[in-house]
Protein: SHS2 domain-containing protein
Amino acid sequence: MADELISLDLAENVLRIAKAKNEGGKIRVEVLFQQTGMPAFYESDTKKVSDETLTIINRSLDNLRLHKKRVNIVIPDGFTYSQIIKMPRLKEKELLSAIRYQADQFIPMPIDETSLDLEILYEDKVSNNSLVLIIAAPQKLIDRVQNLSEQVGLYPEAIENELSATGRFLENFYVPPSQTGGSIFVNFGYSYTSFYFFDHKMKLLLDSHNFPAGLSVFLREAQADVNIDLLKAKELLKKAGFASGGSVDLNQVLQPAVDALCSELQKYLVSLRSKFQITSISNVFVFNLSTEINYLDKKIEKCISIPCAVFDPISITNRTPAVEAYIKDLPSFITTIGGCLR
Structure:
């Protein structure tokens, strides 16, 4: 029997690794790992940064005894281009040819410098149409990521973005509260935030939007206004955040950052209602680095007047020893676990 797929989530400032599967509707985790303080791999294409990244991945795999494994690699949405579109029901190769022919409509970069992939999300035999997820990334970046995996003794089966991996997680495990309307999932990253629309009836992600701001903006605001270093800013956001009554009130300090985030989310909600004629958005869920800012979900809920909570998969996760070590950080592993479910 072939080894089960592992997921290597190479985020901007953190490395996450998982080996997990869907076991009767519950998440069975065998390996879960997180390493913070990663080099600026996506911002700096230098040998020094690549070597530092390689060293950290190698050391992590050594400790986990995961060399010579099949791997699915997840890269951040902010360094890829994604669209979910309706197309004629064709075979995958025919769809890819059609998309390449019209590439300038989907991809803001030259096609000969682009790695292009697609995933058929849904096929409607009645209308003879398909819902297709198009993912494009700079070929140079994909080559760098693939070289990394090969140098550490992993066999890359796929390189995908967070949207693709998160969508697979939700299709496997999210149970909508009703058969109508939809939910919004906010992937709160370091430099980017992604909004995903999950349709309750179809049980699929049907739309996404990237916003170039994330945890780094909140950290800069805290550092500048409270006059503290980065480490103390991280600690303050995680412990205090938007809580009231603490020794330091960050509400006013962080208001510009949260206003920008909520404004972008409000605009996205308006666009969804227009695009899909949605009558209701029942919930907004935040995950990934949202746990690094205490009460961020409640602050968003107050801004947009829609119930908002951290999307925590603990209730559908078997409590294995691997899980116990990261029990408070499970919302940050949504995408990583999704990468195991191909």
